[in-house]
Amino acid sequence: MWPKAPGESAWGPGCCGVGRWLEFKARLRFSAGMRREVKELVLDNCRSIEGKIKGLTDEFEELEFLSTINVGLTSIANLPKLNKLKKLELSDNRISGDLEVLAEKCPNLKHLNLSGNKIKDLSTIEPLKKLENLKSLDLFNCEVTNLNDYRENVFKLLPQVTYLDGYDRDNKEAPDSDVEGYVEDDDEEDEDDAGEEERSQKRKREPEDEGEEDD
Questions:
Q1: End-to-end CA distance of the chain
Q2: pTM, 2 dp
């Protein structure tokens, strides 16, 4: 599994093995046109070098979902500019700051998972205020969650956030569609539109068919 046609996914070594991952890296390097079509990219468990993941560039113009779980990141300062990115998985890294770059590089981000990082205080996540579309934020297993009135203060600091660690202000669990799968939701909408168009065309043909039977 690697970059395919528009809307299909590309996967990393976490689910396809080292041998296939090496082939995947080769495709990242040589298929610029393919990079521009990928919407989902999973690079879990690969290794970053000085905060960079080789092959991950701003050529992924259509990318909406990026997962870089457990890749050894200590900073996201070198994240490429991904204007269409909606969901970013950064859990189980060693990130402790530099979150201000997200507003510049991923301005349309809706879902951000920072679980298992070295985030200790509220001032570290304050730059996320500039992500006006941010709807869901996860900070599980970060030290900041041990602060007094943690949830209340985060919601106050980031009023645009609806779900924190999977729950809203009233401790109601987020529907699965809100926590994950928004890219799939877009695909479902496209399928619904296609189905409605097909039904509409069928309805238009039915009167003609009836007229032919009368003749």
A1: 55
A2: 0.73
